[in-house]
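Hi R.,

Quick one: here's the Family 43 glycosylhydrolase sequence you asked about.
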Amino acid sequence: MIIGKIGFAQNPFITHMYTADPSARVYNDTLYVYPSHDPDNAKWFDMIDWHVYSTTDMKNWTDHGVALDIKDIKWAEKYAWAPDCIKENGKYYFYYPTDQYHIGVAVSDKSTGPFVDPLGKPLISMDTKGVVCNRDFIDPAVFIDDDKQAYLYMGQLVVNAIKLNKDMVSYDGEVHLLEGTDDFFEASWMHKYKEKYYLSYVGTSGEIKYCMSDNPLGPFEYKGVILEKMNSGTNHHSIVDYKGQWYMFYHNSDLYFKNHPEVEVKFGWGHEGSPHPFRRSICFDKLFYNEDGTIQKVIPTK
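And here's the predicted structure, written out as tokens:
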């Protein structure tokens, strides 16, 4: 169901609801964003469903409504957190975390869903053999290489990666722990540019950082910061090429502070006296590379 046209060329670009953790994907001539959805009255990260947004001009956006709801996943109890989605085999595969413990997968014939659970169980969990995670097992990010091998990255504090099978809903049984991801905290994202693999992520510092490798499973070499800390305390991003221009998508709390002028703006979660609104808003800005392939720091715009 198409909810309707919304948004303009400004940050945040979705303003009729709170959104976070944007995973951007391009199918044909359309860019889609798969974010999480913060409730209007959020008191914690208590999200319950996922919407899908699309654009063909980076100015006007369509909200396609709910693509998947936590209540439709029989084995999951709570927390519709940061997802990702990719097209393969003529279908769309939606990867998502629940319960701070599981990574699931759902499938649809359409980029906007609705998505359906094909397994009736998680794809992989914190207690799966080979997984190393002593915090939240979250933030799946999927990547398909030029040879059509698909990888899924996930976890907190340690980057866990698996090689997905051709069916995209199972894997070869081995879990790879990636090396060279300095200060990794969460929100891994993989992309490729000029035969180099870029693993970007949120550091424990709150900045978005990145490292590079000649192999999608590393080892990686740390390169630096792409995006400064945001006033949301948390962040979660994606990087995508659309119509010849690279973009970084991310989130902040600008919409919350605009909607609540009575709240004093203080910077980020953990700062003394600063509220944590748990109500975030997704943004994007252009991303550029240097001649040596390193990434220039992204400058946030309003």
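The first strand starts at residue 4 and ends at 6.

Cheers,
M.
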